[in-house]
Amino acid sequence: MSSQSFADVSEGVRAALAQYTQALDDGRTDDVVATFCADGVCEIPGMGTHTGRDALRQAYSRWKPRRPQRHLVLNTVIAEWSDHEARAISDVIFLLWEDSGWAVKLVGRYHDVLHHDDGRWRFHNRTATFVTEDSP
Questions:
Q1: Left if phi > 0, otherwise alpha if psi is -120 to 50, otherwise beta: which for 17?
Q2: Which of 36, 43, 119, 122 could form a disulfide with 127, with the two C-beta atoms 3.0–4.6 Å apart?
Q3: Under DSSP, is residue 5 helix (H, G, I), strand (E, B) or coil?
Q4: What are the backbone angles phi and psi of residue 54, rounded to the nearest 5°?
Q5: 122, β-bridge pairs
C-alpha cells in the first residue's frame, strides 16, 4: 500500500518541474543539477544525452541563458506513480526575448521519470521531444 497520496506525489512532481524550469531560465546550474538524482539522465535532441550530476553540471553550464528566456511547462499528466517513482508527461513552450519582443522558439514535450529521493522528487530520466525545427 502506498504511503503517499496522489495529491502528495503530484505536488512533489510539479514542484520538481517548477524548480528545474525556474533555475534553468535563471542560469542557476547547481540548482538545475540538484533537481536530478545522482545517476539522473537528461536527453535533449540536438544537445545530447548526459548521465550523472557531473555530466549534467558540465552540460547545463554551457546552456546558461544569454538573454531572457522562459520555458513554460504545462498540461502535466502524472501517468503512473508509487511511493518511489512517478512518470509524468508535460508540454513545453520555449520563449526567447528578441529585439522585437518575446518569440516562441520551441514547442515540445517532456517525458519524465522521477524518483522520491532524500525527501523530494528528482528527475531520474528526463527526455525531451520537439515538434518544431528550432532548438533552444
A1: alpha
A2: 43
A3: coil
A4: -65, -45
A5: 115
Check residue 46 and give its pLDDT.
Answer: 87
Q: Give the pairing type, strands 120-130 and 69-81.
A: unpaired
Cβ atoms 39, 126 nearer than 8 A? no
Confidence (pTM): 0.92
Q: Residue 116 and residue 86: Cα distance in Å, rounded?
A: 8
Classified as helix, coil or strand, 33 is: helix
pLDDT at 134 over 70: no
Instruction: Give the C-alpha separation, 125 to 63, whole Å.
Output: 19
pLDDT digits over 51-62, tens only? 999 999 999 999
Helix, strand, or coil (residue 121) = strand
104-114 average pLDDT score: 97
